[in-house]
Every structure is written in C-alpha cells, then in structure tokens.
User: Which sequence fits this backbone?
C-alpha cells in the first residue's frame, strides 16, 4: 500500500505524476478564477482593517517599511523539510526512489539513527518505519483529517500570509487550516495548549520571526513529520521568514532537490521573482537530544488558490472501517 494518504493531495495543475496512482493526483479545477477573487478579497479586508484602526498610510520610503509577504506561496516538496548544510537536522527518509535517489514518498521509513532523537522517540520512528516497510500506512494528522501541529503544518504546499497591524494570519491550502501569529506580544505566563500552539512574532529588519510554544500534545497522531517523529509539551519552534533572491536561495534549493520528491519537477529555472525562505529551529528536551534546524523554500504562485478538503471515507487508501454507513440510500 502506498503511503500517500487521502489528505496528502498534490496540486499538479491538472497533471498526473508518472508512476503514481492517478486517483491520488488531483486538483480542484472548479476554482478557475479563485486566485483573482481571493487576492481582491484580501486587499479589501486588509484596507478595511487599516481604516478601522485609523492607521496612517504607509510610507514606502521609510526605513522601517515592512517586508511584503503577501500573495500565494508554494514549496512543492514531499516531504518538506530541507536539511541544513551542516549541523543537526530533521529526520529524513531511509527509503529512496530508484529513479533519482530522493525520498520515497510511497514508503516513509524515518532514519531512527538520527542523533537528535532520544531513545524512546527513535523507537517510535523505527516502529512506524517497520509498518511502512510491511506495506501498511500508519496514521498521521494529514491522512486522518486532524489538525496539524507546527512544523508538520508546513506540509501544505500552498500558503498565504495576511499581514495585519497587530497580527499575521497564515492560510493553508488543505483542510482550511488557519494559524494566527500575534505581533509584538509575549507568550502568556500560563499557555493553554492548542492545536497550533501559541505563536507570537515580530519583525527584525527584513525578516518575520515567529516563536511558538504550547502545542497540544494530548491529541491523536502527535507528530511533527511524516515519519511519526513524536514531540512533548516542551516543543519550541522558532521560524524566520525572509524574501531572498535566487543566489541566496540557491543552496536551499539544491539541497531540497537532492532530498525531497518534487511531483512537478525541480523549481522553474526561469522563475524571476523573490523566494520566500523559511529557516526554523526546533527544540524539545523531552523528545530530542539537542536543537536542530531545517529550511524550506517557497516560490510565488500566480495560479488560483487551491482549496483541498479532507474527508473520511471507505473508498480511499486507508479504507476506514469506522466511517458510518447508511443501511439504505437516502434518495
């Protein structure tokens, strides 16, 4: 059984991927003009928010002008973490594709020997890999339609940011997941655990820095990646978003192409816009032996906003047996 999952849907712009089951490679073609409509709505909402707050017009020449992360961004990689050039990095896939040697998305066998893992966490990753090697798909937040914690949340191929005066809102293309980052505020003294955790952020020059704690552990499928790497209530993630040119993005792009499967091929060599570079640090003294880092690279997406909904059903890959069934059709 392939390890794709009913929620690991890939927006392929109407194409299928050679060698992959066509039933899992689909795109919602009903929303042809959604990008234009979505962008217009965002601009209207953003303007209304500023007007309601009585905010002054932005001075583009001011040295404190904020970076503009607006628009739709897409990373196009599965899995999605790009290991660092050096130093401790994320769990990667021991199973590789025969055609090009990158991560085999159909067989998720996490490297349980990665020194970042504490023994109990390594054992979890190893057991999940054994299930995958046996042809079984172990449950995850994405294939079971559950909210995804940070940084598992970055799995969504398409993301957009709404930069508001007091917060940044991140919208993700699958399952209508929404994440809110409060700006220039500290974490509460007592953080109430939540699906995405308590995220606070601030701007440092041309970068947006986001600090997240309080990610709910008492949840089904508590993992931070597709290999089932577990976490505890000590999980702490710091993200840094920056717009960079191709030269600055080159190293991350090259490492990502070597490590992760890209259903639509490598990034467009003729792409001439800015890249969105995400560098993040993960620490969890309950699950990891040390902090580790990873990167991701996004390109601007000028196509329509793809909305993908997860639905439990008995006909997809996982053939969920506990889905309610009617004795007879309603009509």
Assistant:
């Amino acid at each position: 059984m392939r390890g794709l999952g009913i929620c690991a849907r890939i927006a392929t712009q109407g194409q299928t991927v050679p060698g992959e089951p066509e039933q899992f490679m689909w795109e919602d073609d009903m929303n042809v003009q959604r990008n234009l409509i979505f962008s217009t709505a965002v601009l209207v909402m953003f303007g209304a928010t500023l007007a309601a707050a009585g905010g002054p017009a932005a001075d583009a020449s001011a040295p404190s002008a904020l970076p503009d992360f607006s628009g739709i961004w897409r990373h196009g990689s599965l899995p999605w973490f790009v290991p660092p050039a050096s130093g401790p990095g994320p769990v990667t896939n021991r199973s590789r594709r025969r055609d090009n040697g990158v991560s085999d998305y159909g067989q998720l066998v996490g490297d349980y020997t990665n020194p970042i893992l504490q023994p109990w966490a390594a054992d979890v990753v190893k057991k999940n890999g054994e299930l995958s090697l046996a042809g079984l798909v172990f449950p995850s937040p994405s294939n079971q339609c559950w909210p995804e914690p940070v940084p598992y949340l970055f799995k969504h191929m398409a993301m957009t940011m709404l930069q508001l005066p007091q917060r940044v809102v991140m919208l993700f293309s699958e399952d209508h997941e929404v994440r809110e980052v409060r700006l220039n505020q500290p974490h509460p003294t007592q953080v109430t655990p939540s699906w995405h955790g308590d995220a606070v952020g601030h701007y440092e020059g041309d970068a947006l820095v986001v600090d997240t704690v309080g990610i709910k552990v008492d949840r089904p499928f508590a993992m931070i990646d597709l290999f089932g790497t577990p976490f505890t209530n000590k999980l702490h993630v710091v993200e840094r978003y920056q717009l960079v040119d191709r030269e600055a993005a080159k190293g991350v792009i090259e490492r990502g192409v070597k490590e992760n499967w890209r259903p639509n091929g490598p990034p467009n060599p003729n792409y001439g816009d800015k890249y969105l570079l995400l560098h993040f640090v993960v620490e969890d003294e309950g699950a990891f032996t040390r902090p580790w880092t990873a990167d991701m690279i996004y390109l601007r997406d000028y196509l329509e906003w793809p909305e993908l909904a997860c639905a439990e059903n008995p006909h997809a890959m996982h053939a969920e047996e506990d889905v309610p069934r009617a004795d007879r059709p309603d009509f």
